[in-house]
Amino acid sequence: MAKVERPEVQKVDFDGRVSTEIKKKVSGQRVELLLEYPTVYIVYDKQKAHDYQVYVGETNDIVQRTWQHLEIDPATRQDWKYLAESPNSQLVVIGHPHFNKSLTMDIENSMMLYMSGVPSVKRLNNRRENQQNKYYTANEKNAIFSVIWRKLHDYDADLFPIEAIVRDSALFKASPFHSLTREQDHAREKILRKIQAAFKATQGHQLILVEGEAGSGKTVLLSSLFYQLWQLGQDQNYTAYHAAQNYLLVNHDEQVKVYQNIAEKLGIPVTHVSKPTTFINDPKNTQVDVVLVDEAHLLWTQGKQSYRGKNQWDDILSRAKVVVAVFDKRQILSREGYISADQVQRLERRADQQGGLITLKHQLRMNANQATQDWLIHFVQDGVVGSVPADENYDLQVFTDPVAMYDAIRTKAQDQTHGLSRMLATFDWPYSSTNKQIDYVTVGKLKLPWNKQLKAPKGQPRWTKHLAWAEQEQTLGEVGSTFTIQGFDLNYSGVIIGPSVKYRDGHVVFDPSASQNSKVTKKRTVQDVNGQQQKISVADQLLPHELNVLLTRGVNGLYIYAVDEALQAALLAAQAQR
């Protein structure tokens, strides 16, 4: 990290004595940084253990802004009424010699991003976006922010956890406050224009399809879009969006919890975030404005459990003026969500004809070079085990022993500089959520429980049970599957490639008979060209998708062990050629 000048960070009571109290703590030029120059500030109140209400802002005059928050804002805003009246409210003022308007707004945005990823923050009251373009001190932002955050951690470790812990959280990774890439920003603006045009023309049932492979930034784009639509809907100046009924759906238990937590923090009704079946079954949702669908490749295309329809795509499209669906055909994982190539093309054609087909092409998750990304593509999609490329930024290793791989993952996980690391496996060992006995993944001398079976350690705070699977402490002793890791990422992933993936005659092949995933191996009912119902196996198409999801979770590293002896030998030989 580049060396930066020391910021000035001071905490005082949130009352009318800000100037006096700051002058008691610092003097000279350091006082000027806080009282006469642009600053970032945080007002917070600890309501109870692990429960904070937070406001983040920036100003050119902290004394005047504090007076406004204490004397003017409570008349029209309930959040400021609460903070002004609470005897426990605190004000943190942050200054720096290089602060200018653009840098303070960028630091403010970064602070909101981090606050949205802190589990103890239950309400984040300043909800505007301040992403800045290029400016003189932009290259110093990250280094300055890290120094500020460490100082804040000294004040309150519960509200300001270690930076690496926040960055590893699923809340942080799905936050709407991430700075968008140019590609994402252009996509968001195009989508907003399409939505506005659909509203004005009273056109119905528009489909905007956002395609992109794993790690292309689809979730961040959708989260940002959902948040912006909510903001526009609350502003009477934006008549096209005002009072619009917008919903976010995702057919994934872990991911829907993350989105609901974000919505709650930002004051968005949690009922606007749900699983597709809940939305479809609600009689109030016969005609809504906008539906955003994350992980649309998980939508069901046949009836199942409480869903009595035939196709969730059709049911959602029929209920909304505009549907924005993010989709990756290589992440369809179950027969219930199976879509044929012809059906995918029809969706793409429909979106394209309406001017709503968008493709995200840049890989944002993996810090891997193009050669490493190509190696994974050829391995999964083409069945080719090529020479493992050298990559100084990405740790791709084939292990000779699964126990050694697990030890390496544990070491990475326990080092906060490396962050969240977990074991994963193809679904080739029996597992039942209703089984009272623990189900294990057993490979050689390695024997670990499948995901969601170990209990949290005694004394663990109750709120941790709401965290995503990989963020819970006990899951370091488990093996994750696509059911718990899809839609999330890890810093390092250790993937056990089970016996459903083999190497025969110089190619990777998939063996459905060795898979324990009934969502893949059971046959799917489809219509043939004559409209007749028939049952077909789609396992050969879905098993590569399972492997693709598992191998693309690691941000900084991927460790592999293959159960099939021929595949393991081919992988080790490919690694030796590096």
Mean pLDDT, to the nearest integer, reads: 92
Helix residue percentage = 25-40%
Gross morphology is globular
SSE class = alpha/beta
Total number of β-strand segments?
22
Low-confidence stretches: none
Arrangement of strands in the largest sheet: 8-7-9-10-6-11
Number of domains: 3
Instruction: Classify the beta-strand content into a percent band.
Output: 15-25%
Please give the count of helices: 20
User: What composes the largest sheet?
Assistant: 6 strands, parallel
- Using the CA coordinates, give the radius of gyration: 25 Å
What is the first-to-last residue Cα distance?
Answer: 30 Å
How would you portray this structure in words?
The chain has 578 residues and is α/β, with parallel strands linked by helices. It folds into 3 domains: 154 residues, no CATH class; 178 residues, P-loop containing nucleotide triphosphate hydrolases (Rossmann fold, 3-Layer(aba) Sandwich); 207 residues. Helices cover 36% and strands 20% of the residues. The protein has 20 helices and 22 strands. Strands 8-7-9-10-6-11 form a 6-stranded parallel beta sheet. The chain has a 5-stranded mixed beta sheet with strand order 1-4-2-3-5, sandwiched between helices. A 5-stranded parallel beta sheet has the order 12-22-17-13-16, sandwiched between helices. It is globular, with a radius of gyration of 25 Å.
